Amino acid sequence: MGYPVREGTMRGRLALAAFLLFSLPAWTGQAEHYYDVDAEVRIEGSVRELAFEHRYEDRAPFVVLAVEETGTGQKYRIEVGPSWFFGKDLHAGEKVAIVGSLVRTEGDTKFVIAREVRFQGETLIVRDRRGFPEWRGKGAARRGRRKGMGF
Amino acid sequence: MARQGRRPARPSEGHGLLKRKDLLLFFLIPFLGAISLILLMSALNRAYIRGNIDALVMEQLGAAAGILKAGVGRSLEDGTPPAQALDIYAGEGELYYMALLDADRRVLAWRSVFEGYLPLSAQDIPAGGSWVIDSPAGRIFNHFGPFSTQDGKAYYLYVGYSLKAFEEMSSRSRRNAILVFVIIAAAGIVVFRGLSLLQSGYVSKAREADESRAEKERFREISAFTSGVAHEIKNPLNSLSLLFGLMEKRVAPDLREDVALGKNEVRRISLIVDRFSDVLKPLLVRPETFPAGEAVESVLASLASEFPDVRDRIRFEGDGGAMVRADRELVSLVLANLLRNALEAGAAVVIVRAHRDRKRIRFLVRDTGPGIPPERLERIFEPFFSTKAGGMGIGLYLASQIIEAHGGKIEVRSREGEGTEFIVQVPGG
Fold first, then answer.
1. What is the rounded distance in angstroms from the CA atom of residue A95 to the CA atom of residue A102?
2. What are phi and psi of A8, to 5 degrees?
């Protein structure tokens, strides 16, 4: 894949993701954020970086996009989902549109958990409208529902 | 092709036959009605139980939430940090998520089985503090309620319990109801099909019986007519026979041959009339026990005058000592008919066999004649049907009647160019 990776090698991360994915579900140690249905935001901007980060204890690394909002220049770190669920090439400079939950602000960067990610003419649905992760429910078999047009 | 001697058809038991509309009215519609009623009752019953279970579940899970509040409260009183207070309940049954909030409803700590999933929204919380949401993981019971610790601090606890187990119970109940319906429907179809087949069978038998009755009636009419004609013919024939007898003695020698010929022809006509009359007479079976070989021998002897080479052409094989229990004269008549037919067909060799087959004696008459075409074989036992030029078509019909009167069976197999085989079964002694 062509996007820059922050930590480790792609192959090792995918192997780890597969191992953790198929282990039994656990009462996960959580990051400091959850999908807040009352705090949804919409962002349009361009990708500055794509990274893999451990967001949840005992879970595979998640794809995290560093996005700069068009017009305002506001920086966001967008948590998308497990890399195996994302399954798409995304390069720096590509235009994206996000619907997600604003969870916190650190300095000049806002942290968002994505629900829908639109890029390259299609929309990846990551969570349902209450924040249930698609990769844990019926969406898991479909590797992320995609819509062709808009939100 | 085998052809059996025809048994007299029994009168059909046609009383009480159901018409198609009766079957629909008295079986199908009530059955469908019963099925619909069962389905309706089952659905209503399940809806009632489901409603009660839902209420019970809500109550029980609400009580469970109360217990959790007390437990978390005690942990907080002991100085346990909020996150650790929640970790105590890690892996608890069907608990999907829980969150501890302060008095201002800010989340202090939370845990969830699903990454980042805590569907707490101010818009969802009803007055009672309990509600159910749908999710890809099934229905989830939610409770949001306040509690306080002993030091007076107020908190809120938000929990989400999976209702999957109850959903599965409901699904199982629905599946069972469908299974019961399918079984009842299948049973109903089988019963209905069986009734339908029974009905078709009765209709078919009734039709056969009607046809048989009509045929018998036709035969009775023919018999009555023929009897009358035969009776009318016999008298003048007797007179003619006497007249020819007298003329034979008195005419000139050169005319005697012609007169003798006339007398023979009159006798022939009389024989023909007698044979027709035999067919019309009711058969009276007088059973006696006799060896099969004796019957065959007596028939051979009677045919010798007609066919001088009968003993060269007919060969008897098998068990001549097999004892037959039947009317000797009638059985001999049958054998004589079969053998005469074979010889008249030009068979060079005719084999006659007799052997015991359990309680019956089987006679087999096989010839090497020209065989019988299939289209004629079908009708071989019909009265007045003959394959011979000048034949009256009575012999085999009479044979089949005689064998049927004994409760036996007569069959024929034949192939053109390969010969014919008759198989006769009569009671054994």
1. 20
2. 65, -175
Which amino acid, one-letter code, is at B314?
I
Report the DSSP beta bridge partners of residue B133. Answer: B140
Tokens (6 digits) for B35: 């099925």
From the list A31, A56, A132, the residue facing B136 with the nearest CB is A132
- Tallying the residues shown for chain A, one arrives at 151
In the block, tokens 């890399």 appear at A83
CA dist B152 → A19, B60, B92, B148 (Å) = 46, 27, 28, 6
Kindly tell me the burial class for residue B37, based on how many C-beta atoms sit within 10 Å of its own C-beta (0-12, 13-18, 19 or more): exposed
Q: Are B306 and B273 in contact (CB under 8 A)?
A: no
Q: Which tokens hold the place of B90?
A: 């890690």
Q: For residue A112, give how far its alpha carbon lies from the nearest alpha carbon of chain B (Å).
A: 11
As to burial, measured by CB atoms within 10 angstroms (0-12 exposed, 13-18 middle, 19+ buried), residue A25 is exposed
Alpha helices by DSSP H, B286-354: 292-303, 310-313, 328-344
Query: Tokens 């041959």 map to which residue?
Result: B257
What's the sign of the alpha-carbon dihedral B19, B25, B30, B36? positive
Residue B121 is nearest to which of A28, A38, A138, comparing CB atoms?
A38
Contact B272, B334 (CB under 8 A): no
Amino acid B5 reads G
pLDDT digits (tens, 9 = 90+) for B195-242: 778 878 888 888 888 887 887 787 777 777 777 887 788 888 889 989
Nearest to B111 among A30, A37, A38 (CB): A30
Question: Which residues from chain A sit within 8 angstroms of residue B119, using beta carbons?
Answer: 35, 37, 130-132
pLDDT, tens digit, 9 for 90 and up, residues B323-355: 999 999 899 999 999 999 999 888 889 999 999
ipTM above 0.85, yes or no: no
Q: How far is CA B135 from CA A31, A33, B164, in A?
A: 22, 20, 11
Partners of residue A31 in chain B, C-beta under 8 Å? 116
Looking at beta carbons, which residues of chain A come within 8 Å of B107?
34
Q: How far apart are CA A16 and CA B19, in angstroms?
A: 74
Q: Is A125 helix (H, G, I), strand (E, B) or coil?
A: strand
List the beta bridge partners of residue A62. A53, A82
How would you class A12 by CB atoms within 10 Å of its CB: exposed for 0-12, middle for 13-18, buried for 19 or more? exposed
Instruction: Give the C-alpha separation, A116 to A98, whole Å.
Output: 6
Which residue, B422, B259, B266, is CA-closest to B341? B422
- Cβ-Cβ contacts under 8 Å, B117 against chain A: 34-35, 127, 130-133, 136
Judge whether residue A67 has pLDDT over 90.
yes
Reduced 3-state DSSP string for B192-209: HHHHHHHHHHHHHHHHHH
- Cα–Cα distance for residue pair B365/B422, rounded to 1 Å: 5
Report how far residue A64's alpha carbon sits from residue A78's, in angstroms, rounded to the nearest whole number. 5
Output the six-digit token pair for B294. Answer: 């004796």
Q: Report CB contact under 8 Å: A27, B123.
A: no
